[in-house]
Amino acid sequence: MKTLEVSVVTPDGPVLEDNFEMVVCKAENGEIGILPQHIPLVTPLDIGEVRLKSGNDTKFVAVNGGFLEVRPDKVTILAQSAEKAEDIDVARAEQAKKRAEDRLQSKQDHIDFQRAELSLKRAMNRLRVAQR
Amino acid sequence: MNSLASLRDIKQRIDSTEKTKHITKAMEMVSASKMSKAEENARSFVPYSEKLQEVVAHIAAHSDATHPMLQKRDVKKTGYVIVTSDRGLAGAYNSNILRTFHQTVEKRHTSKDEYTIIAIGRIGYEFCKKRDLPVVKSILGLADQPNFADIKKLASETVQMYTDEEIDELVIFYNHYVSAISQVVTTKTLLPITDIEAGETGSVESQYEYEPSEETILKTLLPQYAESLIYGALLDGKASEHAARMTAMKNATDNAEELIDDLTLAYNRARQAGITQEITEIIGGVAALE
C-alpha cells in the first residue's frame, strides 16, 4: 500500500509527522479525502477534525482552520493551532465552551458575537475529537 | 583607630559587592536557559512560516489573483508595531529599538494623526505614554516563552486594521537575534506584503489546483501569513531579549569581580599599613622607655 507523508504544522512547532494511507479533512466546501498521488492542491480548512488512516488504524487531529497543501507524496496542514486527540485538554475545552456559551447568551456587539461563535466551534471540535 | 574603621568599611563593601555578584550571576544563568528555550521556540516556528511563505509566494507568482494586502496604496496612516521587553536590566535592548523608532517617526511624520502604535511590552508602552504618542493596542506581561495563542488576538486585530483601511501600512520594529552576543534592530514593512520571493518554483508540482479559487484562498491565507510574521518577530525579539539580558548580567558580574579584586587589594594594603603603624608605635614606645 502506498503511503503519504503527512505533517501538521503550527506556529508553536510541528504537531505530527508520519506516514498514512489516507487523509480526510474538512475543507470549506465539505469533506475532502486525499490518497497518494493526488494532484497538487491548496485549500483552506474549516474548524474540524482531520482523520489519518493507515491500515485499520485511524488517528484524529483537531484542527482550527488553516490550510491544506497537497503534493503527490506529501500533505502539509498549516493551522494556527492543532492538537492530536490524546493531547487535548478536555477540562480546558469544556471551560472554553462554557465561556463562549455565556458570551453568546449576553448579546453584545457583532464582532464579539462572531468571536464567541468561533471559539465555541473550536471548543466543541476539540471535545468531539477528544472523545474519539 | 582610623585604619581599623576603614578596614571594616572596605570589608563591608566587599561583602555587599559579593552579594550583588551572586544575584547577577544567577540572573545570567536564568537568562541563558531562557535564551536557549526561546531559540528553540523560534526554530520550531520556522517550518510553519517557511511553508506559509512558499504557498503565498506560489500563488502570488503563478496567478492573476490579487488582494488588497498585496497592493500598495497611498499611505495616509501608518501602523507601527514595537516589540520591547516588560522588564529592564537588559542592557541596550530596549533603548536601541526605541531610539530607532523615535528617529523614524520624527523623520517621517509631522503630526500624530499620521501614525498609530501597537505596543508589545511594557517598556515600549510606557515610552509612548510618556511622550503622549498614540497607542491603540498594547499587550503587556507576555510570558517569557509566548505561545501563538497569547498574541493571536492582537495580531489578528492589527491585521484587521489594515483590512479596514484604518492604516495603510504596517511596520514592525524588533531586535533580530543574530547570536548570543549580537542582536540587531530590524525594521520591516509587514503590510502590504511586497518582499515575497518566488523561491524555487521550477519544481515538478509547479501548478496547484486551488479549491475553491485563488482569491478565496488569498483571503484566508494572507491574514494568516501576516499574523505569523508578527509572531515570528515576537519570537525573534524574545530570544534577543534573553540574550541581551544575559550579556548585561555577565558584564555586571565581571564588573563586580573586578571591583572585588580592587577592594581586596585596598583591604590588604590598609591592613598592612595598620600593622606597620602598630609596630612603629610599639618601637617608639620602647625607645621612649629606654
Automatic annotation (TrEMBL), chain A:
<dbReference type="InterPro" id="IPR036794">
    <property type="entry name" value="ATP_F1_dsu/esu_C_sf"/>
</dbReference>
<keyword id="KW-0066">ATP synthesis</keyword>
<feature type="domain" description="ATP synthase F1 complex delta/epsilon subunit N-terminal">
    <location>
        <begin position="4"/>
        <end position="82"/>
    </location>
</feature>
<dbReference type="Pfam" id="PF02823">
    <property type="entry name" value="ATP-synt_DE_N"/>
</dbReference>
<dbReference type="GO" id="GO:0005886">
    <property type="term" value="C:plasma membrane"/>
</dbReference>
<dbReference type="GO" id="GO:0045259">
    <property type="term" value="C:proton-transporting ATP synthase complex"/>
</dbReference>
<dbReference type="GO" id="GO:0005524">
    <property type="term" value="F:ATP binding"/>
</dbReference>
<dbReference type="Pfam" id="PF00401">
    <property type="entry name" value="ATP-synt_DE"/>
</dbReference>
<dbReference type="InterPro" id="IPR036771">
    <property type="entry name" value="ATPsynth_dsu/esu_N"/>
</dbReference>
<protein>
    <recommendedName>
        <fullName>ATP synthase epsilon chain</fullName>
    </recommendedName>
</protein>
<comment type="similarity">
    <text>Belongs to the ATPase epsilon chain family.</text>
</comment>
<keyword id="KW-0375">Hydrogen ion transport</keyword>
<keyword id="KW-0472">Membrane</keyword>
<feature type="domain" description="ATP synthase epsilon subunit C-terminal">
    <location>
        <begin position="86"/>
        <end position="131"/>
    </location>
</feature>
<comment type="function">
    <text>Produces ATP from ADP in the presence of a proton gradient across the membrane.</text>
</comment>
<keyword id="KW-1003">Cell membrane</keyword>
<keyword id="KW-0175">Coiled coil</keyword>
<dbReference type="InterPro" id="IPR020546">
    <property type="entry name" value="ATP_synth_F1_dsu/esu_N"/>
</dbReference>
<dbReference type="InterPro" id="IPR001469">
    <property type="entry name" value="ATP_synth_F1_dsu/esu"/>
</dbReference>
<feature type="coiled-coil region">
    <location>
        <begin position="90"/>
        <end position="117"/>
    </location>
</feature>
<dbReference type="GO" id="GO:0046933">
    <property type="term" value="F:proton-transporting ATP synthase activity, rotational mechanism"/>
</dbReference>
<keyword id="KW-0813">Transport</keyword>
<comment type="subunit">
    <text>F-type ATPases have 2 components, CF(1) - the catalytic core - and CF(0) - the membrane proton channel. CF(1) has five subunits: alpha(3), beta(3), gamma(1), delta(1), epsilon(1). CF(0) has three main subunits: a, b and c.</text>
</comment>
<keyword id="KW-0139">CF(1)</keyword>
<dbReference type="InterPro" id="IPR020547">
    <property type="entry name" value="ATP_synth_F1_esu_C"/>
</dbReference>
<keyword id="KW-0406">Ion transport</keyword>
